[in-house]
Amino acid sequence: MTFTVTDLSCRRGEITVLRDVTFSVAAGEALVLRGPNGAGKTTLLRTLAGLTPPVRGTVDTDVCAYAAHADGLKSQLTVAENLTFWARVFGRRDIAPAVHAFDLRALLDRRAADLSAGQKRRVALARLPLTARPVWLMDEPTVSLDAANVALFGRAVAVHLQTGGCAILATHIDLGLPDTRTLDVTRFAATQTDDTTDPFAEALE
Amino acid sequence: MTALLLRDLRLAIRAGGGFGLGLAFFLILATLVPLAVGPQPTLLGPIAPGILWLGALLACLLSLDRIFALDLEDGSLDLIATAPLPLEGVATIKALTHWLTTGLPLTIIAPALGLLLFLPSSATLWLVIALLIGTPALSWLGTFGAALTVGLKRGSLLLSLLVLPLYIPTLVFGAEVVRRGAEGLPTATPLALLGGITLGCIALLPFATAAALRVNLR
């Protein structure tokens, strides 16, 4: 399968940040979003995930699994309970492959509140294979991971790519993935004053 | 959906989940009233239905701001919104969890608190029936308010201001059922209205709640 986006305009709040975003990611491919802070990487990922409706264009959000900045773990629940919850939401029972891929076996019975930042991050990323969705959207996935765990994460993404999935990630770290392309989001930056429909915009400037 | 329900129920009873907070508040309110207005049965008996309903309503209000705020803080609300669960269903489950952890326990301990307030024994059954039928509306309305104010700083005060006026019909008809029950009058009319409000809330509000969530998650 190929995940294609054509002429997508994304907004953050009331401001259109990106305009006419066009790209496609084939199965087995990873697309790394690049650009300085505030270029719109998170905005694009949130739009692809279906959290922010696009200004123009459509996205097939049902194939996308999203891993945000925040870990989304419930601190009072154990790691096993957190993962089982997400597995059941996505209609699956077995958390063992995800536990294995992210080396979480020793942590299963610990409360998420008692984990270190890097361990929490690993649990949050282990949610991705549980979704069984082909397109992984990841926003700075390697934050607070040490070198060994970045490698572990890189292998998990590589396995996902080999089994016909694809990945779109915003990161500054080289994960050592076989088939990687980069996309500079500043190419699609929308100029602030473009065809504004707000009649008060001029008065405010 | 059941996964979400079980998770939220589990969170509610774990440490810091807030289960029992509303109950304790209800209990304290019902004990404070006789201390404040005096212990005479002739004084407390007639106002007991109103006090108990008001107490239930305020106890309900206490835990409303937790419904979505905690999920938003740790990022799981975003993830739930991208999961294959319809947001309307999420709204229903959240309201149901809130009712199971506040409305239902309040209904169960209300007869005991009725004794404290010299509620006539003929009205006890009506109190339970009225709370059982009326409190779901409080949870569903509250969930809608919580969705409107999620993400706002100091949203819980605004939430109370938004939601309390919406609670008025339930309060009026709920207390009326108990008052009529205490005096041996027919209760069918206020009971039907109370049930109508609750059913309307359960049927319609999840759509409004989901719409509010979508706007606030952007």
From TrEMBL, chain A:
Keywords: ATP-binding, Cytochrome c-type biogenesis, Membrane, Nucleotide-binding, Translocase, Transport. Pfam families: ABC_tran. Residues 3-204 form the ABC transporter domain. GO terms for molecular function: ATP binding; ATP hydrolysis activity; transmembrane transporter activity. This is Heme exporter protein A. It comes from the Bacteria. InterPro entries: AAA+_ATPase, ABC_transporter-like_ATP-bd, ABC_transptr_haem_export_CcmA, P-loop_NTPase. It comes from Jannaschia helgolandensis. PROSITE patterns: ABC_TRANSPORTER_2 (PS50893). One of its GO terms (biological process) is cytochrome complex assembly.
TrEMBL record, chain B:
The keyword Transmembrane applies. The chain crosses the membrane at residues 12-37, 43-64, 99-119, 125-150, 157-178, 190-213. GO terms for biological process: cytochrome c biosynthetic process; cytochrome complex assembly. Coiled coil: none annotated. The keyword Transmembrane applies. One of its GO terms (cellular component) is plasma membrane. It comes from the Bacteria. It is found in: Cell inner membrane. One of its GO terms (molecular function) is heme transmembrane transporter activity. It is a multi-pass membrane protein. InterPro entries: Cyt_c_biogenesis_CcmB (IPR003544), Cyt_c_CcmB_bac (IPR026031). Keywords: Cell inner membrane, Cell membrane, Cytochrome c-type biogenesis, Membrane, Transmembrane, Transmembrane helix, Transport. Belongs to the CcmB/CycW/HelB family. Required for the export of heme to the periplasm for the biogenesis of c-type cytochromes. This is Heme exporter protein B. It comes from Jannaschia helgolandensis.
